[in-house]
Amino acid sequence: MTSRTNCLIIDDEPLARSLIKTFLLKKTGFTIIGECTNPTEAYELLSNNKIDVIFLDIQMPVISGIDFLRTLKHPAKIIFTTAHSNFAAEAFNLDAVDYIVKPITEERFEQALEKLRIALLTNESDDDKAGLTSPAPDYIFLKTDGRLVKVQFDEVLYLEALKDFTKLYLKNDKTILVGEHLKAVENLFPAADFIRPHRSYLVSLKAITGIFGNTIEIGKTQLPVGGNYREQLFRALNIR
Predict the structure, then answer these.
(1) What are the pLDDT digits (tens) for 119-178?
(2) In 10 A of CB 130, how many CB atoms?
(3) Is it true that domain 5-130 has CATH number 3.40.50.2300?
(4) C-alpha span between 190 and 175 (Å, rounded)
(5) Domain 139-236 falls in which CATH fold?
């Protein structure tokens, strides 16, 4: 295991977060990168930091821990910490390291950390043998109308912010409405293939068919280009 293990805690219960922090602070080699009250707050932390393990509750506002894990392209190691025992089978099917049922005792927490240590060592060994990482998936699962829908990145033309929602415009005139802010959804898309031309839009670089003044064209659709985004957009399109 590496000398420092970066941790993220996601739990809507303040006492649960505090207890996990207390246990971790007693151990050497663990760094708490952040704590969140629900999974949607975690996307930015995950995109800006290397996280080795997430201590994840299940029943939370907006999106459950199980559904959140399914949205992650390259998830960290997961230790579920929950008051509900009936999701254990599903959690382990998603390759969770451990599943701790609250109330959490220090002894049980240490058992989970030992499983984590072994999992991280195994991961390092597998990476050394492979010599390379697995290719990134070309799809994502997004929650809409109470179910998870598989979306191929190549099918997405652009995304639009609609207050507390994000609308995806796909090929063949299909649309999907997701109950997340655009920023949270953006973090799930490959940065090399999607870019912001405006604060209200995220577009597929492959889908852009033309530029006219301060607008970009995606087929017959025209979208605005914000002044703060123009230089980055032109650089991504290799326009000088």
Answers:
(1) 888 776 555 544 444 566 788 888 888 788 889 999 999 999 998 899 999 999 999 999
(2) 9
(3) yes
(4) 19
(5) OB fold (Dihydrolipoamide Acetyltransferase, E2P) (2.40.50)
Q: Residue 228 has which token pair?
A: 């703060």
* Calpha distance 72→143 (Å, rounded): 12
pLDDT tens digits for range 164-178: 899 999 999 999 999
d(CA 124, CA 120): 6
Check residue 135 and give its pLDDT. 62
Beta carbons within 8 Å of 166's beta carbon, 6+ residues apart: 159, 160, 177, 178, 180, 181, 182, 184, 185
Helix axes 14-25, 106-130, angle to 10 degrees: 70
Tokens for 136, please give them.
Answer: 């990134």
State the DSSP string of 111-122.
HHHHHHHHHHHH
Whole-number Å distance between alpha carbons of 14 and 36: 10
Can you give the pTM of this predicted structure?
Answer: 0.57
Cβ neighbours, 10 Å, residue 16:
19
Judge contact between 214 and 224, C-beta under 8 A.
yes
Q: What is the 3-state secondary structure of 160-180?
A: EEECCEEEEEEHHHCEEEECC
Neighbours of 33 (CB within 10 A): 16
